[in-house]
What we know:
It is a single chain. By secondary structure, the chain is an all-alpha fold. It has helices at about 1-15, 20-30, 45-50, 55-65, 70-80, 85-95, 100-115, 120-125, 130-145, 145-155.
Amino acid sequence: MTTGIDMALAMVSEDLGSALASRVAKRLVLYARRLGYQSQFSPLLRAQAKADGPFADLLVWAQANLDTALDVPSLAARVGLSERTFYRRFVAAIGETPAQYIETVRLDAARILLSQELPLKEIARRVGLAPTSRFTQVFQRRFGVTPRLFRETHTSR
Length: 157
């Protein structure tokens, strides 16, 4: 269901602009009830609400390309800013460093993918945290449990 909402928001963004898509997304999420382990507002929506200019489109692109290099040099080049200017403006606009934001978005996507029957290796690849050992380390540092234990605890089989 959320994939359909994401697709619809992408179409609104493409046709009517990211500002309107952000307002629609905020309104849609207002009454959403997620499972206990999922945040009420996605990191993407929180950041998009704060973002303007080149960052709004960049955040949508990054969310769709988690399996690619999303480091400061790559992101800065994508929006046509120097690395230093990009970093400074990103922190001012979003309220966290690019690395913190990207990690949060990757882990949010990973939690959703863990509810599916995908192997951990595939999830790690899809969210840009391969190899699996890196994915496990980052996930455990953030949530205090391994992805495997998280899956066992939060999925009904």
